[in-house]
Structure formats: structure tokens, C-alpha cells
């Protein structure tokens, strides 16, 4: 089924979240799509615990706190989130509407599109091993949708973070699990680390010190992987390899949307933050204009001006009256303040 | 003039002017060499991975836990792997030799 809305926002990072608020004040409804399974973009994914010191009037706020506060601020406007999926295509439906397709097959119709895609989509960091792509989605997975396929299989998990440890612990119930990491220390929740070490003691998990170097077709099992430790090469045959080396950002499908780009950034004007295509806007880290600073602060400003311009597309016959949130009864109503 | 020597992924050496206070990553990035440094030096991306010439290794501050953890997300880690953004250049490092790690 198709969803219909005023504005579709590509990305759910901090700038997108504040855009919900600015658009909401002008009665503009939005849907958001993000690859990640949670809102907050870089702030939640890369540095949830780290402090930010240059958000006006917040002497210090962490990445996750900022996300949480922005979510609260956006809540009265009932944004709809489509998480864990990527915006792949944008097509002109008619003179006044766009049709947006996501990687999950979801379609959304919107009057305007706001691209707040940061440095692009978060995608898994893939080990640079020759030929690994030939096994992807067959014997190599970077995320897990259906764990039942691993039942009674030999699974090698690579990495030392939360995903690697959590899946090691979880899959040890149904599979023969081996965990490979370059050192016997982990940057994961202490509970998961302890649990893993306990499972290792009980021989339910096999820990291997080393780094992956090669993958090829196996004899007894579907794949053979090679790994090194102390300059020695070892081999192991397995059914599945699950590399968990965190996420990185990649421009992704945005390059194919016919917009003017400047070194992978979307060119916009500084009055409306509109792209070379009318009714498609771009705000936050992903846009480019002379003097651009990649700061959350700048993204917030861009969101406010963009919203003014979106209003003209969403309500072509109405005049927008400028009001302050402090005193406007109308705005208070929208914010749920009595 | 202080300098650092950087070997790129094709094996070519560059002498780059270096100012105390800049990080090795910044010196390499600002010279236009191919170092991604996606997080801008916050120790949050591991895309400024370099190998430090063994002769120089002992002159550096040791890695802290943050840097070691971040290196877990990089590949082809060696004994002399470091994150360029976590090494601040100072006069003692004049002439330091580093190599860009594979992409
Ligand atoms: C370690 C670190 C520290 C920082 N410290 C500061 C600081 O102190 N002050 C400051 O102002 N800034 C700081 N920044 C920068 C700040 O985080 C960014 O400016 C900010 O996150 C940009 O927000 P954004 O909403 O534009 O994009 P992002 O936060 O990058 O979010 C973009 C989102 O869009 C999604 N996306 C992209 N393409 C698609 C697609 N096709 N389909 C679906 N989803 C898509 C991505 O998955 C991502 O979640 C820091 C950054 C880092 C990494
Ligand atoms: S630049 Fe990101 S970790 Fe160094």
C-alpha cells in the first residue's frame, strides 16, 4: 500500500529530526526513511556517548541525549518513521507529487522531498578480502534477518564489538560458533563479554585470535577462510561467515537522482536550501553551498529556511504568517501546550 | 621547516610540511593525499589508519583504549598500526615516516 504525506525526508539524523519540528509548525506532515534501525544518524550510531559542546544553550550534551531530545521535540507532529530501509528511487508521479521507493518495497507519495542524508547511508564495513562478494548473501552475511538458517551449522563470526559478541552468544544455542578477533579484548558491553568468555570455558564457543585474509570455496563445507596470527596462516572450513566490523557511510543511490552534485555533496541555494530540482530540498551534512560548515547548528538553520519554502509547495494558496513559538496560540495548540 | 614523510598506497613517498599542534591525519588530509578520515578526527571511524615506521614507534604516545577499540574496525592491522588522528605532531616527530594503510 502507498503512503501519502506532505514531505518525505531521506535520513533521520539530527538535522532531519529538527526539520520535523520546523515543518510541523507550518502544518506540514512528514515521513522519514533511514537505513539505520534507529533515529539519530551519526550522533546515535557513531558517538552516542561522546559529548557535544556547540549546541546553543546546551553546555554539554551527548550524541544520544541530543537525539532523544530532538525526538521529544518532534513528537507532537506525529512523524512516521520507516527504519531499516534505504530510499532507492525517486520518480516524478505528476506535476505536484513525487513517488519514493525504498529497499523494502515501500512506496510513499509526497509533495516535497528533503534530503538530509548526512554523508550517505550507513552500510556495513566489509573486510577487503578478494572475492568475498561472490559469497555475500549466500555464505557471508553482514546482518542477520533469519537466524534459523544457522541451525546446526558451523558459523564463524568476525569482530570484537557488540554485534559480534551478541550474535556469538545468541547463535551458540543453535550452532557451532567460532569467534575470530585480532585480540582477546572487546569493545562490547561487559555483560556480553563475560557471557562469551563463560561460553568459551564451557566449550560452547571457540575463540580464535587472528585476522581474516582469504576466502575460497571449501571441500567439506561451503567455504574455507584463511586467517593470520603472528605471521602464521591458518585455514578453517565453515558454513557461514558473519563479519561485524561496524558501519561506514556511503553516498549510495543519491548519486542517481539527477541532482547537481559537488564532490558527492548536493548543491543548494542558501535562501531555500532547494536543489537543482524544484521541490527537492537538501539540508545538513549532505548539502553544499559556499561557506558551508558541517555542523549540527548549521543544519538546524537550514531546516528552518527550507520549511518556509516547502510551505509554498504544500499550501500554494495560503499565506504563511511568521510567528514566534513563545506567544502564538496557534503554535501552542500544535505543540500540545494548554 | 618541520616535515613528515608519507608513503602512499602505490609506494610513492611525499615530504609534507608539518606544524606542531596538527595531527598526522590532518597533515596528510590537508596535503590532499587519499586518507578518508570520515569522522574528522574524533576517533570514531578508523578511516585514518596508518602504519608508523618501526624506528619512530617508540617516540609516540602509546595508544589509549579508545584508539585500540577503534582499530578493531579497521583491517590489516599490524604491530605498528595507528590512527593518524590520534597522533599529534610535535617537534620530536620531525621527519617521522608513516604509510597509508589499505582502503
Ligand atoms: C565523532 C563525531 C563527533 C562530532 N561532533 C560534532 C560536534 O561537536 N558538533 C557538531 O555540530 N557536529 C559534530 N559532528 C558532526 C555531526 O554529527 C553531523 O554534522 C550531523 O550528524 C549531521 O546530521 P545530518 O542529519 O545532516 O546527517 P547524519 O547524522 O549523517 O544522518 C544521515 C542519515 O541519513 C541516512 N541516509 C543516507 N542516505 C539514505 C538513503 N538513501 N536512504 C535512507 N537513509 C539514508 C543515514 O543512514 C543517516 O542515518 C560530529 C561527528 C562525528 C562523527
Ligand atoms: S579520522 Fe576518524 S578515527 Fe581518525
Question: What does this protein look like?
Answer:
The complex is a heterodimer of chains A (338) and B (103). In chain A, 22% of the residues lie in helices and 31% in strands. In chain A, helix 4 links the parallel strand 10 and strand 11. Chain A starts with a strand and ends with a helix. Chain B has one domain: Ubiquitin-like (UB roll) (Roll), CATH 3.10.20. Chain B has a 5-stranded mixed β-sheet with strand order 2-1-5-3-4. In chain B, a hairpin with a 5-residue loop joins strand 1 and strand 2. The model of chain B has no long low-confidence stretch (mean pLDDT 95). The chains are: A alpha/beta (338), B alpha+beta (103). FE2/S2 (inorganic) cluster (FES) binds next to loops of chain B.
Output mean pLDDT of chain A.
96
CATH topology descriptor of chain B: Ubiquitin-like (UB roll)
Write the CATH architecture name of the largest domain in chain A: 3-Layer(bba) Sandwich
Radius of gyration of chain B: 12 Å
Name given to the CATH homologous superfamily of the largest domain in chain A: FAD/NAD(P)-binding domain
Considering residues with a beta carbon less than 8 A from a beta carbon on another chain, report the largest interface and each chain's count: A-B, 22 and 17 residues
Structural class by SSE content of chain B: alpha+beta
Bound molecules: flavin-adenine dinucleotide, FE2/S2 (inorganic) cluster
Main sheet makeup of chain A: 7 strands, mixed
Put simply, the count of helices of chain A is 7
How are the strands ordered across the major sheet of chain B? 2-1-5-3-4
State the share of residues found in helices of chain B, binned by percent. Answer: 10-25%
The helix fraction of chain A, in percent, is 10-25%
Coarse structural class of chain A:
alpha/beta
CATH class of the largest domain in chain A: Alpha Beta
State the oligomer: heterodimer
